[in-house]
Amino acid sequence: MTTSTRPAPGSPAWLGAEERRLVDFAAGAAVPDGFGWLDARGGVEPDRPTETWITARMTHVFALAHLRGDARAAALADHGLAALSGPLRDTELGGWFDEVPEEDPTSARERSQKLPDKSAYPHSFVVLAASSATLAARPGARDLLDEALRVFDTYFWEKEAACVRESWDADWTVTEPYRGANSAMHWVEALLAAADATGDTGWTRRALAIAERLVHGVAAEHDWRLPEHFTPEWRPVPDYNRDQPDHPFRPYGSTTGHLLEWARLLIHLELALERAGGTAPAWLRADAEHLFANAVRRGWGVDGAEGFAYTLDWEDRPVVRQRMHWVVAEATMAAWVLARRTGDTAYTEQYERWWDYADRFHVDRENGSWRHELDPANRPSDAVWAGKPDVYHAYQAALLPQVGFSTSIAAALPGNGGTR
Length: 420
Prior knowledge:
Distance between the termini: 37 Å
Strand order of the largest sheet: 1-2
Shape: globular
Order of helices and strands: HEEHHEHHEEEEHHEEHHEEHHEHH
Number of helices: 13
Helix content: 40-55%
């Protein structure tokens, strides 16, 4: 009888190996104008445009990898910064296109109808990437960050609502009559990172305002289910996309993974406020625990099989039953930070359970990275997400427990604030 010496999923040795494996896969995404969409085997999808959100998220990953001492990562992070400063950026009117335009316009104002929109979601990742790259001391990163924050402040920050506008047309003339919790959530992450990179705690207070509206307000009022779609006046639209429930960015119903992601971000925000010299509201940790507990109770194994159902209706019935890799990645991170902040061993047990699940079903040791989507029986699927677009969620999940808890993941890496 032989005993396996393979490290346990979620253990330090396992996480370190997974971290390196994910960077190996991600390195294949480099294309001349940024980072492309990777297919299931790690090849770039040739028919897809180069998108800002993928390029920025990959740049963020490579900045983190550089801080971890990966010799390849500096050049890859710099490649991403060049793309974000070049073909993806509107140098005439400001901001970033959702994707590289098909042709370089001579006058963006004259041809604005032919250009991609400018959306809050990819802009949040430009700020995240530039923040991590600033902390990694990459050339040009701080200038990029300052410009991205200026664009946020000018066009996306809705002062009266203390929250985020969703999108604009190319010349900043018309804003979409829609507000979304998904992009707002990612701005919380981005603003926490920006505060770390700039030393300006005003960005932390903006993050708190967004969280207070959407979590302490909307989610609490809906028994810890979070409507994600709103009118311009921030009134929930619970039936939004009922006829397209598997929309990859705006699905109908309550999105289990976002509740888990919010739970983690609230704990990062609590620490950020404490380190800024203020008093963190008690509701931050309490709400994080409510979100986490209800996401797990309602979403994990709800249809009889392991895994988190992607979306639920407002009576907690599964709508889209696919299992997304990013959901279990966020679950491990939320459990880990809550365990560190509360000392409750139940969170550690959940952390271990979900790493075991991810290792058995999502981690793809044959083709690389993680299987981004599984069907309700935990078999590979592409009903919502085709291929393996990026490694952002999985890489952060592998990294966080290794580097320690801080206000943002990048802040822990140079040795300036992580706590194990």
